Amino acid sequence: MTTTYLFLMIAGLGLFAFFLSFQRTAQYNGPKRLQSLPHHYASLTAVWTAFPAVLLMLVWAVIEPGYLQQQIITNLPAEIAGQSSDVIGLYLNKVHLSIENKMVDSDPVIQSLVVAYEKAALNSRYLNTAMVLVLCLGGIVAGLSRILFKVHARVGIEQLLKAFLMLCSGVAIVTTIGIVLSVMFEAIRFFNAVSVFDFIFGTAWSPQTSIRIDQVGSSGSFGAVPLFLGTMLISLIAMFIAVPVGLMTAIYLSEYATPKFRLMAKPALEVLAGIPTVVYGFFAALTVAPFIRDVGESIGLSVASESALAAGIVMGVMIIPFVSSLSDDVIKAVPQSMRDGSLALGATQSETIKKVIIPAALPGIVGSVLLAASRAIGETMIVVMAAGLAANLTINPLEAVTTVTVQIVTLLTGDQEFDSPKTLAAFALGLMLFVTTLLLNVIALHVVRRYREQYE
């Protein structure tokens, strides 16, 4: 039985155990009262039925490939089994290719190994199915039998739920640690070849390296200052547009707009967040960038066809919903009693918003701005299509620049070898970007905690 059918069988037996246990406990009329409600016993019985079987399937999925490969090695002829591991590996690959492509190999040895593999795989499936079925039936019997005893099923279910929630939290934490460590290890390999000082403070970025040592530019230049300067320049332009517009929009929708207008305007505004970034990139490259170039040339300015200003403006429009929607929710969450108290003391509505509501909602507003900043720093498509790939060391928004994320994509695009500084530079850039985002988070948390203590 395949894995899919096994999961369906376990799910069916789990549901059967749930309803059978629920019916039995609901009709229980013994001398003593049950310690928990019927659905607690039913849920616990279903868990006893399904969880051990699923755990067995996961363990079996881990050990089965090794078992099947060992069966192939066992059936190798003596003259082949005594040869090097490379020769044995070649035969193993031929067997796997024959099975995956459903082709008959001309070599009789491969044919016999394929037959042995398929026989072992069939026996493995039969054994796995039998063990899963035994565990499920055993779980049903154990669950129904323990109903007659003084079992606190509710406590057991709550403990299982607590363990499941802890497992989910642990998965998130372990995933984060794994990502950080994987990036860090590759970045360390890069810094073994390139000086950390040259990377952080270097002003020339040209990661192209040649295959032969005698070729020009074989060493490459890995100064990341132009990349981070371009990232900050585009992000600042985007934030100068998104934060004022988004915050003013949130204030209007939450404090001045009628409920009917708010009901129509807020979903329409949030549509901006659902537009694919490649569409924004096309809009920036085909509409905004030429318009800025034409306007600049009309007043005597030299504007590049791909500029940081075009990318920043379009990116700012894209992240307006992140600021406006979250800030609107936060402002709406400010207690009405604070508004009423300010108005009762004689303050106008605008004074109430400025002196009471905005300070009270400041932690949430800072969070929305931080989310928008993270979105701007991590954007790629708009920068590629509107700002270009040139790593220019400039703060002129009318010139072409590039960002860290764009260079990471460029370095890892296509077939790459993870032994050259050119490819490993992407991990160093990712590590620096992670550190930058972490510092932004620390600053934002400091602001949030300071004002939260003041207004709560």
Quick description:
The protein folds into three domains: about 5-150, no CATH class; about 155-195; about 220-455, Orthogonal Bundle (MetI-like fold), CATH 1.10.3720.10. Helices cover about 75% and strands about 0% of the residues.
Strand content: under 5%
Low-pLDDT residue spans: none
Q: In the CATH hierarchy, what is the superfamily of the largest domain?
A: MetI-like
The average pLDDT score comes to 80
**Spatial sequence of strands, sheet with the most strands:** 1-2
Radius of gyration: 32 Å
Cα distance spanning the termini: 59 Å
Name of the level-1 CATH class of the largest domain: Mainly Alpha
How many structural domains are formed by the residues?
3
Number of beta strands: 2
Write the layout of secondary structure elements.
Layout: H1 3-26, H2 38-74, H3 78-81, H4 85-101, H5 108-146, H6 153-193, H7 196-201, E1 205-206, E2 221-222, H8 225-256, H9 259-274, H10 277-298, H11 308-318, H12 320-332, H13 336-344, H14 349-377, H15 381-386, H16 404-411, H17 421-455
Antiparallel strand pairs: 1-2
